[in-house]
């Protein structure tokens, strides 16, 4: 009977091991999902009980601020299959529960290019399109051929094209109006057989030797990232906490006149300001108080040293935003997805 809770669905489970900030809040119901069949069973039961459904991967782009009601699914749907091959590309379908970095390693080992700059980004393949992950001048949208989803509105599987997803800088429709509609079950990437390297960003040119291939780029990206970013297994964090704010030319020139060292990049007629630089100038780099802080090597990364709850981090976020607004007149926007019922403070 559909009323019977499938045995793989548990009740009142701590999400602490499932978010890289390691905040300790509970899921009302919880399941690890390893197949589409399990997904269908879990969704059917949740629908019958009128429960909301939240799908997570590695929890590395999450800010949990309270218990999560309804059913939390952790996507563990694995599998890598070569679907088609042309003279220049190979189409590869990755299960949404594959670990993103391991998928990059797989592609590099096969000699297939296009995602090597995205090495060491934590999390799963299924979450990669949600915020259109990007690093070192590459965004995942450029490698996506199609995305297989489970549509919660009619319980069917569908295939979406990248053009439908409104990909932008750390954005897509999955992060907005599709948030409660689609569960991504696999992502098909078109990977290059004769890779063209992207070395223009993050000083890669200076560390990648002449005549290098994707393996050398992959290794350089891993090395640079390890030297700059905290490993969530050692210090709890969710990577960049703020998006780089994009401002119009007048605002950029006004700030630049006052702060000549401003770090910014021209983009589509506007200017993308380095949020890490803004935080650094506002004096936050290395700040630590009440069990949370700002990473000492990168002021864009907020870290949790020893808090079980998110209150101190939310307070730190408010203070950083307030000071950046006061000094530069720029409003910072949070990058991780906020989840869970707000707690009284
Ligand atoms: C140290 C560190 C460095 C980072 N560096 C980068 C970086 O360079 N570039 C970058 O872009 N990001 C970076 N991130 C952020 C993060 O790694 C990515 O956003 C990653 O894609 C999140 O994957 P996840 O599986 O952990 O997603 P989760 O945190 O579990 O989920 C994130 C969002 O996606 C949704 N979601 C997850 N899986 C699915 C699914 N199958 N179907 C539908 N929705 C889903 C969730 O509901 C949630 O809204 C970094 C994070 C850390 C901790």
TrEMBL record:
GO terms classed as biological process? cell division; cell wall organization; peptidoglycan biosynthetic process; regulation of cell shape
Q: What is its EC number?
A: 1.3.1.98
Sample GO molecular function, one term: UDP-N-acetylmuramate dehydrogenase activity
Show the catalytic activity: UDP-N-acetyl-alpha-D-muramate + NADP(+) = UDP-N-acetyl-3-O-(1-carboxyvinyl)-alpha-D-glucosamine + NADPH + H(+)
Question: Which pathway is it part of?
Answer: Cell wall biogenesis; peptidoglycan biosynthesis
- Catalytic residue list: 170, 240, 335
Entry keyword set: Cell cycle, Cell division, Cell shape, Cell wall biogenesis/degradation, Cytoplasm, FAD, Flavoprotein, NADP, Oxidoreductase, Peptidoglycan synthesis
Matching InterPro entries: FAD-bd_PCMH, FAD-bd_PCMH-like_sf, FAD-bd_PCMH_sub1, FAD-bd_PCMH_sub2, MurB, MurB_C, MurB_C_sf, Oxid_FAD_bind_N
- Which cofactors? FAD
Q: Name one Pfam family in it.
A: MurB_C
Q: Where in the cell is it found?
A: Cytoplasm
- Annotated FAD-binding PCMH-type domain ranges read 22-194
Where does this chain mainly localize? cytoplasm
For this record, an example GO cellular component is: cytosol
What HAMAP family does this protein's entry cite?
Answer: MurB (MF_00037)
Q: Which family does it belong to?
A: Belongs to the MurB family.
Alphabetical list of NCBIfam families matching this protein? murB, PRK00046.1
Q: What does this protein do?
A: Cell wall formation.
Protein name as it appears in the record = UDP-N-acetylenolpyruvoylglucosamine reductase
* Naturally occurring in which organism (per UniProt): Marinomonas fungiae
